[in-house]
Design a protein that fits this description.
heterodimer, A: 473 residues, alpha+beta, Immunoglobulin-like, 19 strands, 27% strand, elongated, disordered C terminus, B: 235 residues, Serine Threonine Protein Phosphatase 5, Tetratricopeptide repeat, 3 domains, four-stranded antiparallel beta sheet, 9 helices
Chain lengths: 473, 235
């Protein structure tokens, strides 16, 4: 690995290509209306994934310009949801399309709208098969009611157990509608209720006499919810209007969509649907000579190796671009790191996180940094974007502290430059700042502009107290 | 230096240490034991206080004490770089100043890198760039010359062509540019430069060959089209 300081012919060509390509790094693309999309892509958005696409994903999808970009997006969309990405089948996608087919087959039959558009179809696509179903479809005095009971979905931000209730307002005719204790109330579940339609308590008591089971869910969909015998449950309404619609988003990290939009013109097509999430850390420190270095680390969520006979290989390529606030490129660099391990090494590292760390010097100023990290063998990528401030060597400033898992106080690399080697101390930083007691965590911060002697040019003189350290537990 | 650890805004630990106790002039390293800390989000604030205990600089960061039984530690890939006095850093900083249009600072740093390692093709090429930008064409040739006798010359062909052209040495420039094309393939800028050189020495036929090849690559060059038209009329 070496710095890309020379500007040979290929470098110039690279710079030109990058300037052409990277210039649209950030500007917002023109957003389309769904009706402007080709029919196939509009159907995908407005029918096939309408309930599960996150607002951010939808926003990005509508900014894509070509069908090829949309195809790549769709591929990435499903990849992000694949529970077993290393197998050929995407179980999430298979299950999703099964749900749509089921909804179209069984819901809204004989009605004017397709099954996936009905309330039952929507809930079925969002939540899947319920644990059990209760049907009250032939009661003489009660409108047809169907109760779906779900449990074990807390990981999606839902209550441990809850019911979803559908009813037909107009007796046997019409289609099932979603029942809300707050918006509908028990009075709408009865065919011949003559009481006050705005008074749920009286209606509840009336319904209880007719069918206690239905009455039990008419004020709250959440079993065990605190006393709701008098008033309809607000929580149930929040469950229906907010929690269930957003349940498919809970496990989706949709940052990939933004990255796809940002880098679609910069990276090769085969990478674009393979965004992997990562944790970055970027810190600026001055060395003893006053030279500022940008220390950075990228911890991708995974590092894929390819087996070639008894060797395991990956190749990391990092492209960095530092721009001033007007968008002019100030510095670009490229690093390539081939990795080639035997089976014992792979066994040793495969359960661990991978942390790619590097540093480079940078002249004072305010910048934006973009780092594109690629595994050229698996065609996976991640990226980091951040603002950078490099203070003048004489300016009074303080760096943000870096918190670490471990500190080697007498690094063998002292005297050279190495990422997060600060003075003689080699830190192993925590990208997420998560620690486990009872370990110790090292903290390192750095100030610039200090002088040990009284400096008349400084805003204040540093005076050194000679008293002992004072620690307050 | 005052270190304060807060949990939900409430101070749970603090440490004050005199700057004199730190060995470095500007680096402050501390270790905090986490025994007794309950799982929660915390904040560490680090402040520089003056003699009157007034805060002059401060920084802070959040951290999390996890209830998890273990945290996966990473394996780290990190290559050491040379010490800060290595000429490669001068070259990096020089390029940054050049890109930021600060030629004087760029010149000093790139010249420093070149002088300290005159055999480095990379440093020489960077130095040639800054010299060319400063129109010090003779100096460009002087810096590039040692590299023109072996395979390292290929990277200097274009800048030598441009320098020769700037010095009015058109025949020499054409030779460099043609070598460059032979080595790296067709290039719009080089073809146009060859065309310009041929025009200067009055070889309209060869100028037209170069310009027409350039237009084949990119037909949307209105200025070149006009030039071709005018050359054909003169012919």
């Amino acid at each position: 690995m070496r710095y890309n300081v020379g500007v040979n012919k290929r470098t110039i060509l690279f710079i030109i290509i990058c300037l052409l390509c990277l210039s649209p790094f950030l500007p917002a693309q023109k957003k389309k209306s769904p009706k402007d999309l080709p029919l196939y892509y509009r159907k995908w958005l407005e029918e096939e994934v309408v309930y599960i696409i996150t607002p951010k994903e939808k926003d990005v999808y509508l900014q894509l310009e070509t069908d090829r970009e949309r195809d790549i997006f769709v591929e990435a969309f499903w990849k992000q949801r694949d529970p077993t990405p290393n197998t050929p089948e995407n179980e999430f996608k298979t299950e999703h399309y099964r749900r749509i087919a089921y909804a179209n087959q069984w819901f809204g039959k004989g009605g004017p709208i397709q099954g996936w558009r009905t309330d039952q179809g929507r809930i079925y696509i969002l939540l899947g098969e319920s644990k059990h179903i209760l049907k009250f479809e032939n009661e003489e005095t009660i409108n047809p009611v169907v109760i779906w009971f779900y449990d074990g979905m807390a990981e999606y931000g839902l209550p441990n157990a809850f019911n979803v209730v559908f009813f037909k307002k107009d007796g046997a005719g019409g289609v099932y509608e979603l029942y809300s204790p707050l918006r509908n109330g028990p009075q709408q579940l009865m065919m011949y209720y003559m009481g006050d339609m705005t008074e749920p308590t009286q209606a509840y008591q009336e319904l209880y006499k007719l069918e206690p089971t239905i009455a039990g869910i008419s004020l709250s969909l959440i079993p065990g919810e605190a006393d709701t015998s008098a008033n309809p449950s607000m929580m149930s309404d929040i469950l229906l209007s907010q929690k269930i619609p957003s349940a498919p988003f809970v496990k989706v990290k949709d940052d990939y969509a933004e990255k796809l939009l940002r880098y679609k013109d910069v990276i090769e097509v085969e990478y674009t649907s393979n965004y992997i999430d990562s944790d970055p850390l970027i810190k600026v420190y001055q060395d003893a000579a006053g030279l500022s270095f940008v220390h950075y680390l990228i911890e991708p969520k995974k590092l894929t190796f390819y087996q070639v006979q008894d060797r395991f290989r990956a190749e990391i390529q990092v492209n960095g671009k530092i721009s001033d606030l007007k968008g002019n490129t100030v510095y670009q660099f490229e690093r390539t790191e081939p990795l080639d391990f035997d089976v014992d090494t792979i066994k040793n590292i495969q359960a661990k996180l991978f942390s790619y760390q590097d540093l480079f010097p940078l002249i004072p100023g305010q910048y934006k940094i973009n780092i594109l990290w690629k595994n050229t063998m698996s065609r996976e990528f991640t990226s980091v974007e951040a603002d950078l401030l490099i203070p003048d060597p004489g300016a009074f400033s303080m760096s943000a502290p870096v918190l670490a898992f471990r500190a080697d106080r007498n690094s063998k690399y002292r005297g050279s430059n190495k990422s997060f080697l600060l003075g003689n101390i080699q830190l192993v930083p925590s990208a997420r700042n998560i620690f486990l007691p009872p370990t110790r965590f090292p903290s390192f911060s750095s100030c610039t502009g200090f002088r040990r002697t009284s400096n008349p040019a400084a805003p204040w003189n540093i005076r050194f107290s000679r008293k002992a350290s004072k620690s307050t537990p | 230096m005052e270190y304060t650890i807060l949990k939900e805004g409430v101070k749970v630990h603090s440490l004050t240490r005199s700057l004199a106790e730190y060995p470095g002039q500007s680096d402050f390293f501390e270790e905090f034991p986490l025994a007794g800390y309950l799982p929660a989000y915390y904040q560490i604030k680090i402040a520089v206080l003056n003699g009157e205990k007034a805060e002059k600089l401060s920084t802070q960061i959040m951290f999390d004490i996890t209830p998890a039984a273990a945290i996966a530690r990473p394996w780290v890939l990190s290559r050491p770089l040379p010490a800060s006095n290595d000429p490669s850093f001068d070259a990096v900083l020089g390029i940054q100043y050049l890109n930021r249009n600060e030629p004087a600072k760029a010149r000093a740093l790139l010249e420093s890198a070149y002088r300290r390692d005159p055999n480095s093709k990379t440093f020489a090429l960077d130095f040639c760039r800054v010299l060319f930008a400063a129109k010090e064409y003779t100096e460009v040739k002087k810096a590039a010359l040692p590299f023109m006798n072996d395979d390292r010359k290929f990277d200097f062909l274009q800048i030598m062509g441009e320098t020769s052209q700037a010095l009015g040495e058109y025949a020499e420039a054409i030779a460099y540019f043609k070598d460059d094309l032979a080595r790296f393939g067709t290039n719009l800028l080089v073809l146009n430069a060859i065309g310009e050189c041929y025009v200067k020495i009055g070889n309209t036929a060869e100028a037209l060959v170069a310009y027409e090849r350039s237009l084949q690559l990119n037909p949307n060059q209105e200025n070149i089209k006009a030039l071709v038209k005018s050359l054909k009329e003169k012919k």
